[in-house]
Write a structure and sequence with these properties.
single chain; 468 residues; alpha/beta; Rossmann fold; seven-stranded mixed beta sheet; five-stranded mixed beta sheet; 12 strands; binds NADPH dihydro-nicotinamide-adenine-dinucleotide phosphate; binds (2Z)-2-iminopentanedioic acid
Length: 468
């Protein structure tokens, strides 16, 4: 090649280099393309990875070389199995069971079992992914996992529930254990289901061990576990308000849901001097301007397993609203604080606009990912204090870890002892995430703070353990 030609080539305008995509964007795209039809999983990954930009971009080449993000968004293992059982008419039913063992860097997999017809792999993956960071935030040695089935417990007899739980555990018991993976409750799985599952595990594996949490008190359960998620949510809310110079006492709250988390959120809110005025289930919602009567709510939901129409029928001050007929929900009530405690994406941008127009000051998530990304950003833009579920509802799993400790030492702690530890954990989580947000210049952004604080410990453990 002649020199002249070389010069000509060199003088040609250099082709524009495409701007290199950031590592975070690359991994978000990868997750979407590799896991199509899993929108909830995409949503959870986007929220977490976008929050991690300041940490990852400060050391991008190392993170990329070690494929840290690819490893964290890929479950260590996902198990899918058939769950056949016989209904009361003698008909065989077949459901699908899942257990996603997402990340064991800091401890055995830990996370609940969801029984709801909407369950699919994507839902369990979003929950398992969130659980990694939540469990890390508790400061306790528990990794992230989640399981469930598309089984619908509604309207089933106790015998049908037992038949399903026994069949589910017959397969699941091969993959779990007190030091490997410890499931617990979630939507549709309460003390009754945990009891049936524990009995079947013990029968097949022949060991009495802390393989499940949320157990009954007569066979290794922890005092205060039933209350823990809802109580923890309120301890967190109170601490967050205090640190911003505000008080919980005297504030009105809109709560959604009327299950385990909602009931004990309402109970603790009342104990701390706030006034919860709403609750809901999948068919309707209650507005009770006098304040929710938590004893009546427990009777309707925990004892009678009935609908909220029964609450309204027994409580003169309560108004019942049918969701389908009216197209309304509890977020249109004027309140100071919103506590979504039912399910994912139950608070969207229209709800957020109504809450903000009505002067809401704080949103603290009792459920997992109940607020859409758009609604979350709107709250943040409007300077509404917003605490994400992985921090605000971590009291449940934290107390599960306390149950594991009690099982290991074969002792039971008093209610006061567990409750005091729970409160300490929630206060600690709040300050950790508040400090992490400040450290990276995102003061008051508790989403960024929670994701970074949760991520740092997991990544440190992953790095220490080599490429696994
Ligand atoms: P429960 O099954 O006890 O209660 C769920 C409540 O939410 C019920 O009132 C239910 O109404 C309502 N709900 C569920 N799904 C839907 C839906 N698709 N649309 C409308 N309403 C719905 O569950 P939990 O209280 O245990 O769980 C609630 C949330 O909190 C979930 O997001 C869960 O992942 C999260 N969570 C739970 C923890 C725990 O310790 N239990 C810990 C941390 C988070 P209906 O009865 O009509 O279905
Ligand atoms: O979402 C959750 O943190 C739970 N459902 C509780 C998990 C647990 O292991 O107690």
């Amino acid at each position: 090649m002649s020199n002249a030609k070389k010069t000509t080539t060199a003088k040609k305008a250099a082709p524009k280099k495409a701007a290199k995509k950031s590592y975070v964007d690359e991994v978000i795209e990868l997750v979407i393309s590799q896991n199509p039809s899993e929108p909830e999983f995409h949503q959870a990954v986007k929220e977490v990875l976008n929050s991690l930009r300041p940490v990852v971009e400060a050391n991008e080449e190392k993170f990329r070389r070690d494929a840290v993000l690819e490893r964290i968004v890929n479950p260590e293992r996902q198990i899918k199995f058939r769950v056949p059982w016989v209904d009361d008419n003698g008909q065989v039913q077949v459901n699908t069971g899942y257990r996603v063992q997402f990340n064991s860097a800091i401890g055995p997999y830990k996370g609940g079992i969801r029984l709801h017809p909407s369950v699919n792999l994507g839902i369990i993956k979003f929950l398992g992914f969130e659980q990694i960071f939540k469990n890390s935030l508790t400061g306790l040695p528990i990794g992230g996992g989640k399981g469930g089935s598309d089984f619908d417990p509604k309207g089933k007899s106790d015998r049908e529930i037992m038949a399903f739980c026994q069949s589910f555990m017959t397969e699941l018991c091969k993959y779990i254990g007190a030091d490997t993976d410890v499931p617990a409750g979630d939507i549709g799985t309460g003390a009754r289901e945990i009891g049936f599952m524990f009995g079947q595990y013990k029968r097949i594996r022949g060991v009495f061990e802390g393989v499940l949490t949320g157990k009954g008190l007569s066979y290794g359960g922890s005092l205060a576990r039933t209350q823990a998620t809802g109580y923890g949510l309120l301890y967190m809310t109170e601490e967050m308000l205090k640190s911003n110079g505000k008080k919980l006492k005297g504030k009105t709250c809109a709560v959604s849901g009327s299950g385990n988390v909602a009931i004990y959120a309402i109970e603790k809110a009342i104990q701390l001097g706030a006034k919860p005025v709403t609750c809901s289930d999948s068919t309707g919602w209650i507005y009770d301007p006098e304040g929710i009567d938590v004893d009546l709510l427990k009777e309707v939901k925990e004892v009678n397993r009935a609908r909220l129409t029964e609450y309204a029928a027994k409580r003169p001050s309560a108004q019942y609203h049918d969701k389908a007929k009216e197209g309304t929900n509890q977020w249109e009530i004027k309140v100071d604080i919103a506590l979504p405690c039912a399910t994912q994406n139950e608070l969207n941008i229209d709800d957020a606009k109504k809450l903000v127009a009505n002067g809401v000051m704080a949103v603290c998530e009792g459920a997992n990912m109940p607020t859409t990304l758009e609604a979350t950003e709107y709250f943040q833009k409007k300077k509404v204090y917003f605490v994400p579920g992985k921090a605000a509802n971590a009291g449940g799993v934290a107390t599960s870890a306390l149950e594991m400790s009690q099982n290991s030492e074969r002792l039971s702690w008093s209610f006061e002892e567990v409750d005091a530890k729970l409160k300490g954990i929630m206060v600690n989580i709040f300050h950790n995430l508040d400090n992490a947000a400040r450290k990276y210049g995102f003061d008051g952004n508790y989403v960024v703070g929670a994701n970074i604080a949760g991520f740092e410990k997991v990544v440190d453990a992953m790095n220490a353990q080599g490429i696994v």
